[in-house]
Amino acid sequence: AKLTLPSVKAEDAGTYICTVTSGLDSSTLDIPTILSVTGVISYFPQAPLSYIALPTLPDAYLQFDIELSFKPEVPDGLILYSSQKEGSNGDFVSFGLSYGYPEFRFDMGSGPALIRASSPIQVGKWHTVRLSRNKKDGYMIVNDQSPYVGQAPGKFQGLDLLTPLYIGAVPDFRNIHKQAGFSQGFVGCISRLVLSGKNVKLNQEAQTSKGITACETCAMNPCLNNGVCQEAYAEQGYSCLCTPGFSGYHCEKIGETCYAGGCGGGRCVNEGASFQCYCPMGTAGAKCEEEIKVLVPSFKDGAYIAYQTPKALRRFITNIKFKTNDLKDSVILYCGQNSDGQGDFVSIAIKDGHVEFRFDTGSGPAILRSERPIRASEWITIKADRSLRDGSLIVNDMPVTKGKSPGTMGGLNLKTSLYIGGWDRQKIKISPGVGVSQPLSGCISNITVSSLNLDLIKSAVDSANVENCDASEGACTSLPCRNGGECIDTGYGPDDYACECPPGFSGIDCERKEDACSSGIACKNEGVCVVITGNEFRCLCPKGWSGKTCEDGTTFGSEASFGGNSYVELDRLMLPHTSSAVPETIAIVFSTTDSNGILFWHGQKPEIDGRGQDYLSIAIVDGFVEFSYELGSGPARIVAPVKVNDGKRHRIVARRTARDGSLEVDSFYNEQGQSGGTLQMMNTRGSIYIGGAPDVPLMTGKIHRHGFRGCIHKLSIQQDNPVDFYNDSLSSVNVTPCTSEGFDVDLKCNSLMDRVSEARRQIFQSCDPGEIQPKRVDANEFINSVSDIIDIITKFDADDVGLSVFVTCHPSEIPLIPADAFCALNCFANSCLSECVRTLLSGAIGCPPLFRQDCSVSLKQSLKALNFAFKACLFEKSVLSLHECKETLDTLDGIVSVRSDPFKTRWVAHTQDRGSAVSPPLQLISLMCPLVSVIKKCLVL
User: Of 270, 369, 732, 737, which sees the most CB atoms within 10 A?
Assistant: First the structure.
């Protein structure tokens, strides 16, 4: 027989057994062969440069956990480094040795945290160091000593890392952060690197490497009793493959050891002079040889069940029903931030005969103890509730116990599996803050956790040595019926019972609350059902589906409708915020009648509380547009002084460069603002959300509470092409096309353009192209012709779709409507009529210098002058000389910005000079604004 391994890796090392079967009497003979693999562990000689480049440190924005084992040959050198960018600035993390002292540094934009051991480590020895960071706080543990702690200065909490994670050195020490603290690489062996609980195989997972050789960790052959040394990703760079009859780290123990198939389908662990089997759910026995049925789990001798990690940053609620065989101190439930017991945790335990609920959010544990002790062999019901730093505990019918964790930190960061009954001692050390270190001896019949949909048996992701609870007293003794259901024994087996459920509940154990979503079929096409009341529900329909139950197919493009519970998710790289020097521009055209709602949000990931985090937001707040952003040292809030919830189209442009921002609304209002402090870099790790978000209050830190209700007609980011909400999005919820207005766009556009062209022709029909200075203009024709254009636009704007249809059909013609008339009036006011008329009649549209140099100011003045000029000419006489019209416009152009009383005085004085003193009609003042508004929209859209 022959076994061929085409590609040998470190994990292939071990004992291979060749079994020979006799053809005569079917007897078998096992022939063991030990395979060892070399070249596993990396050596960094730095001759002249040695390093390994790994992918960027994953999910390190708010926290990370790194563990590494190494043996240095010199007391100085960089072991680990990653940064935001190459060069001497930006965020970074570094670890290495300085004169033999381990040094851990990180900088999030406000200066570095420096955590340094109090004593040097020995050169030529193996050491294990753990580096942890939670926002601004850092921890370093050297060789299982007490942790060294430190904190970064400033308010900034997010760490942006974009370069590779370099191990051993960097390609060029001139391109690392000036505060990193190192100028040379590490010389020695690195045997083990663990990132957030995941073992990294340096040689296999390297993106690039340079100058790496093999570390001969087995050169001294430390294994006893003929054991074979194997290079391994272990704390000292090797493990021993022991011969039969020996065990231990160096094969120093005599006794039976684990062997292939020794535990059936279970996990074998060498312990002392023998081994122990950890049997999966449904098996039992010394070697997991028995099949059993588990209905109510029973725990003893370290048995446990593990479930997926709960999301408990802000809230954690659990209900547990259990009974204990004795009142010894023991753990009922545990989940922690780290596998070594450091950091945050939540636990429920029996201590001193009482039930204790503990949780630690980073500043020490809250301890809530039941008012009275419990009794053994009785079923106990627990409800434990924690919200930020506040907690409550209810045990059976005892009074509620309340408590609070110390300090100011409120987020509970959990990363390990959720364990009940015990825990995996090969992987997990429970926090000393639990106050208990032994597993439960007893049964657990029910568990619920707020963020998880748990089935006691089926939801298990791992388990060991769990058996079925003794049901000799009848199945109902375990109180299987939930929510007030009545249990009826129907036999003597553990599942011989029936539950009579109270109204509103159903299921075998009355575990299912009946509501509009309980059928599981309320929403079609993978829509998510949300209960509004007991009988009412709402479906969150994924992209491509709409309707009450997501039954209708739909599509949309660069224009989309949002219903208040809708959103579009875009890739964060559409606005990456990679440099504070890069200007950012967001342009949105929208219409709404609601007073509040998010238009654009870029912050953190959906599960992270947005309070205190960086963000960029554009929203409707009390009917006004608000552009706000936070860079870590105080928000900017820029509000335009015009309401936009009138159902008409509005265009906004938000611009930001570092701390400086501006908000432009309808090309008319332009407001400026600036964020507080000195920080200039925005750090956002979540997707971009348009029109809403998965959890608006949580993600925005309650800055906003409502999604947008209305239509977003156009979105451009960084002046790129309009975003296609359907094809460019990562996902969407409850997004539909904007409603159709039901008219022939082309017909209406063509009709409008015909009328505009005719009106433009009539404006100058009395001018003789051959004359340098036309003598007279018929005032009525002039007024009526220009008014015709204004009336067309005004009436068109009264439609539901408004002027936007004109713009959609003829965007190139937008400037021509105001330019012809207002450019001519500017000519009048600046004594250049003949030049302007010649330019217009020659077919080229041009304006005098005043109009071109400062369009926004001169346009505004011209609009006001035009409105007054029409009425003034009509008021005084039907025929004007060009000189008279110019004089009137000159006068009006100088007084349009004057308030009512001075305006009235100057108007009367002007008309007195002409021999007909008249007070200005009120209509003159009131007619000024509508024209400005109409042309403003024309230019905007």
Answer: 732
DSSP code at position 812: G
The predicted model scores a pTM of 0.46
Can you say whether the dihedral through the CA atoms of 177, 180, 182, 188 is positive or negative?
Answer: negative
Tell me if 492 sits within 8 A of 474, measured CB to CB.
yes
252, 257, 228: which is closest to 240 by C-alpha? 228
Q: Which long-range contacts (CB under 8 A, 24 or more apart) does 120-125 make?
A: 120/75, 121/72, 121/97, 123/72, 123/73, 123/74, 123/75, 124/71, 124/72, 124/73, 125/71
Q: Does domain 515-554 have CATH number 2.10.25.10?
A: yes
Q: Please, where in the chain does CATH 2.60.120.200 lie?
A: 42-214, 297-468, 559-733
Closest of 736, 720, 697 to residue 571, by C-alpha = 720
CATH of domain 559-733: 2.60.120.200
Cα separation, 170 vs 78, in Å, equals: 8
Distance CA 104, CA 139 (A): 9
How far is the C-alpha of 73 from the C-alpha of 88, rounded, in Å? Answer: 28
**Are residues 316 and 412 in contact, defined by beta-carbon separation less than 8 angstroms?**
yes
Q: Residue 503 class from Cβ within 10 Å (0-12 exposed, 13-18 middle, 19+ buried)? A: exposed
Distances (CA, A) of 863 to 563, 821, 869, 934: 38, 10, 10, 10
pLDDT digits (tens, 9 = 90+) for 369-392: 999 999 998 889 999 999 888 999
User: Which of 533, 528, 500 shows the shortest CA–CA distance to 514?
Assistant: 533
Closest CA to 361 of 336, 383, 334, 385: 336
Element (H, E) at 866: helix 855-876
pLDDT at 891: 42
Other CB atoms within a 10 A radius of the CB of residue 256 amount to 14
DSSP state of 803: T
Would you call 24 helix, strand, or coil by DSSP? coil
Q: What would the pLDDT profile of 211-266 be if each residue is shown by its tens digit?
A: 999 999 998 889 999 888 989 898 999 988 887 777 778 888 776 667 667 787 88
Confirm if 791 and 931 have CB atoms less than 8 A apart.
Answer: no
Question: Which one, of 936, 397, 903, 426, lies nearest residue 649 by Cα?
Answer: 936
